[in-house]
Amino acid sequence: MELSESQVTIVGLGLMGGSLAGALRGKCRRVVGVARRAESAETALARGFVDEGTVDMAEGVREADIVVLATPVRVIIRQLPELAPLLPKGCLLMDLGSTKGRIAAEMERLPEHIQPLGGHPMCGKEKSGIEVADPALYDGCTFILAPLKRTSAEALALGHELAEAAGAVPLVLEPERQDYIVAAVSHLPYLIACALVATADTTISADPASWEVVATGFRSTSRLAGSDVTMMTDILLTNREEVLKALDTYQERLREFASLVETADEEKMREILGAVRKIRRDMYPASQQVIE
Amino acid sequence: MELSESQVTIVGLGLMGGSLAGALRGKCRRVVGVARRAESAETALARGFVDEGTVDMAEGVREADIVVLATPVRVIIRQLPELAPLLPKGCLLMDLGSTKGRIAAEMERLPEHIQPLGGHPMCGKEKSGIEVADPALYDGCTFILAPLKRTSAEALALGHELAEAAGAVPLVLEPERQDYIVAAVSHLPYLIACALVATADTTISADPASWEVVATGFRSTSRLAGSDVTMMTDILLTNREEVLKALDTYQERLREFASLVETADEEKMREILGAVRKIRRDMYPASQQVIE
Hints:
Two copies of one chain form a homodimer. Chain A is an alpha/beta fold. Chain A folds into two domains: 3-173, NAD(P)-binding Rossmann-like Domain (Rossmann fold), CATH 3.40.50.720; 178-283, 6-phosphogluconate dehydrogenase C-terminal fold, CATH 1.10.3660. Chain A has twelve helices and eight strands. Chain A has an eight-stranded mixed beta sheet with strand order 3-2-1-4-5-6-7-8, with helices on both faces. In chain A, α1 links the parallel β1 (7-11) and β2. The longest helix of chain A is centred in the middle third of the chain and has 28 residues, at 175-202. The N and C termini of chain A lie far apart (54 Å). At the A-B interface, α7, α8, α9, α10 and α11 of A face α7, α8, α9, α10 and α11 of B.
């Protein structure tokens, strides 16, 4: 099966699902969208993102070659066993959830005639809903594909093709490995940003001058604290152990930096700050960091 | 004395001093630049930032109405007593250092015929040196003015005029108050970013896939870790107590977030993350936060 011959059914027409539908339309035989609300299905149709929109799950997936669950992680976990009896034989069942461990465990229980494949596109926006969906959302983003042991090479290849057709760069990672990495590069930064905002709120916010002083550095460092609460709660609760491990290591590193300031050992300070700067620069060689 | 009639001498022709010279040229009687290296003075002259460039401090400040020290904080502390005997009576002596407490203490000791005024423009770039100086650097940035009790209203007004002439928005703050606020909005975010980079380095960096996954959230949160090491060492060592206090509060807040994940109390988590999100949004109402 190739993507161009496939019917892709996307369950959940929010920002992620709606954008994916729009990105895939014209690159596969047919794109069907299944929404919870009739208005979302109508909007997706009106915006040209789907060939057909419905609120009837059974109808939407009946002839699907690929089904993509674009709902929150814990909804995905609930939907997987409900969907299984509705899917045609050999159907590729993917999801777009930000954490993969618990989804993979649930996917293991699917009937053998279904091909499961975890997915996690590393893109998004602050706003949610079909109204802000954008077929260009996936352009250039890393799209993690998390196959199970039971996932066939053909199913993985089809998922790969789908990610590329959406404009993304596929990266294959085992579910546990993805959860470990994403805890450090995405979930930890979110909590770091939240704690910074909470610190500002309990200290300097009493001084009306503070917000005039707030510099671009604070803005960058605190940016993720503006993320969607439902999505982040879902993520923190389904990747709890990896997040706690990352937080432990982070707190340890932070104590080391505090002790560096405490002891005021200039030579050691310069050495450690210099090493950190080098690591950061090697990560993003072309970036321009603002200093204030 | 008004700015338009003044000779402004800027000591230190790096990014900050060079840019300020360029921004003020034409708006005062004369801009003189004092550099450590003859090449910097020549470049400032060639780029049209100064009317005169010199490496001779005594010559550069002899006829100054306003002297601005645009050197690192601990160099400023050393230069203040050296400069005092060279300055004309009534001269306004400002600085651009990022921390103000120790500079203010040193300014208190200046002879009475000198008018001291702390300054801290909240702008900058990753790169340093006269080569990257830009007269537009100060446009729209908050320029903190930290007067001492001995600073006259006239001297403060002249500093105000200078900041505005450079394109900045002046904000008057006592030195201790500025150090307290800036520790939380600028120095703490720097250390937070460093600890995040160090965490990534000691955990996920062993997995070659990690850097492909590194998302825009990590990029924002870690941005400040790329800041200039000499400048940051200077800042951390001269604002040590405020930075340690901010770090203490931050570590406390972070433990609260860790316990939120640990106990997995969904209702409480939603409530706290929602409150933090609201605070962040109220700070930057128009901003678009990227989620991944």
